Amino acid sequence: MLLDHAADLLFEHSLFNGHPRFWGYITSSSAPIGALAELLAAVVNPNVGAWLLSPMASEIEAQTIRWIAELLGYPSDCGGLFVSGGNMANIVCFLTARQAKAAGNVRELGMYQQRLRVYCSKETHTWVQKAADIAGLGTDAIRWVPVDDEQRMSLPALKEQIAADIASGDKPFLVIGTAGSVSTGAVDGLGAIAAICREFDLWFHVDGAYGGFAAMLPDTPRDLLKLSEADSVAVDPHKWLYASLEAGCALVRDPQHLRDAFAYHPPYYHFGVEAINYFDIGPQNSRGFRALKVWLALQQVGRQGYVSLLSRDIQLAEELFQRAALDPELEAVTRSLSIATFRYRPADLGASRAETEVYLNQLNRELLTRLQESGEAYVSNAVIGEKFVLRACIVNFRTTSADIQELTLIVARMGKAIDQALRPRDS
Ligand SMILES: Cc1ncc(COP(=O)(O)O)c(C=O)c1O
After folding, report:
1. Does the CB atom of residue 236 touch ligand 1 within 6 A?
2. 23 C-alpha to center of ligand 1: Å?
3. How far apart are CA 87 and CA 181, in angstroms?
4. Averaged over 387-408, what is the pLDDT?
5. Per DSSP, what are the bridge partners of residue 234?
6. Statement: residue 80 has pLDDT above 60
7. Is the preceding omega at residue 246 within 30 degrees of 0, hence cis?
8. What is the distance between the alpha carbons of residues 292 and 14, in angstroms, rounded to a whole number?
9. Is any atom of ligand 1 closer than 6 Å to the C-beta of 182?
10. Given ligand 1 and candidates 87, 92, 188, 235, which is best to mutate, with the most ligand atoms within 8 Å of its CB?
């Protein structure tokens, strides 16, 4: 009875992000095996904070980290751990970088008298603000580097900013490259960023929360492969490995850096040091068994299975982009990895002028709200330059080509109706 009631409440008031036409944000359809894994993990209830409290679960987490590193082409003897998601995975790496690169013992003495500076593109996800805040740097320490036409970090601007900061006595310590930006899926020039980090002795972190797993694809963008050169990488199994929430993952090339950033040994800890104790390498003490659902899915689906699922998502995003490009009432804007952006644009609107753009933004904003409320399909939005666009992020193994075609028809139909209401014409 009680469970029936809870199930009713949840099914009646869900956003149904496992639906074939759900492409909002970067929230995947979750792999069914994850539900069984969560049940098993809750029943056994290992505390994966210390090996003694969870011997097999700790080993399974360590193996899952190795497998994930192998999938990414990252050294499989790296340090790593599961956390709640992309934000936490990136924040763990940020704190690790701070400890590795700051002068003196910042964990004991704090950040006083150090003007550490961090560099990332303007398209970087907002986790970086939380990280700079939590790490005691303050958000003014973030240098938001402009992007080029493809929404990738401008490398000349990055170098210029680093040089200017050094000249004024600040201390650059970290560059963040994004492997699949949240808005458009853009992949920064990771190889070139790695070289700049070597030149200036900076920590190189890659936010691969969304796009990192695309590094396993045979035809992956070359830049994505250079994620292998990073000092640390964040990836999110609850995005493109289709794990159920929550599952983020922080990888650090040299495991000692994680211990340096997080270990404390109070007298009431008697857990031994010969095995992996996750309390030593991350911010949590008691920890759940997030790795199990990923460990099971990796075995169930296998590398080849994931290669075909991810490739299919990318192919569907490309199909959406092409359909929008061919439709006289739609405008295709970007496509990178499995994110496509587009907007409704009445065919009779004529050449773009400032007023036209204001009108198109109003129209597409209204269209997005209406589409989301309709329940027919779910996309979110991006703002590219000054354009408000619809954004479909396909991390969904249930989506078919017919769903994509349907989306373009729905958007064209709704767009037309809104346009007619906003811009009545004599008939
Ligand atoms: C590039 C990127 N980084 C970080 C995050 C944050 O991930 P989470 O929502 O799992 O904390 C996201 C979320 O979409 C993202 O796209």
Report:
1. yes
2. 15
3. 13
4. 98
5. 207, 250
6. yes
7. yes
8. 25
9. yes
10. 87
Our CA dihedral for 373, 374, 375, 377, rounded to 10 degrees, sits at -100
Q: What separation, in Å, do the N-terminal and C-terminal C-alpha atoms of the chain show?
A: 58
> Atom 4 (ligand 1): residue with closest C-alpha?
86
Q: Report domain extents, the chain.
A: 47-288, 304-422
- Please tell me the distance from the alpha carbon of residue 97 to that of residue 71, in angstroms, as a whole number: 23
For residue 85, which atom of ligand 1 is closest to its CA?
A: 10
State phi, psi for 413 to the nearest 5 degrees: -65, -50
Pocket perturbation via mutation, ligand 1, pick of 23, 26, 129 by most ligand atoms within 8 A of CB: 26
pLDDT digits (tens, 9 = 90+) for 122-132: 999 999 999 99
Q: 142: which strand partners? A: 118
DSSP state of 31: P
Q: Indicate which atom in ligand 1 lies nearest the CA of residue 89.
A: 11
Tell me what pLDDT residue 131 has: 98
Q: Whose CA is nearest to atom 9 of ligand 1?
A: 86
> How many whole angstroms from 231 Cα to the centroid of ligand 1?
19
CATH architecture, range 47-288: 3-Layer(aba) Sandwich (3.40)
Q: Does residue 314 line the site of ligand 1, with CB under 6 A?
A: no
How far apart, in whole angstroms, are the C-alpha atoms of residue 366 and residue 373? Answer: 11
pLDDT at 268: 79
Q: Does pTM top 0.90 for this prediction?
A: yes
d(CA 165, CA 264) in angstroms, rounded, equals 34
What tokens does 18 get? 């496992």
- The CATH code that applies to domain 304-422 is 3.90.1150.170
Tell the burial category of 112 from Cβ atoms under 10 Å away from its Cβ (0-12, 13-18, 19+). Answer: exposed
CA distance 273 to 38: 29
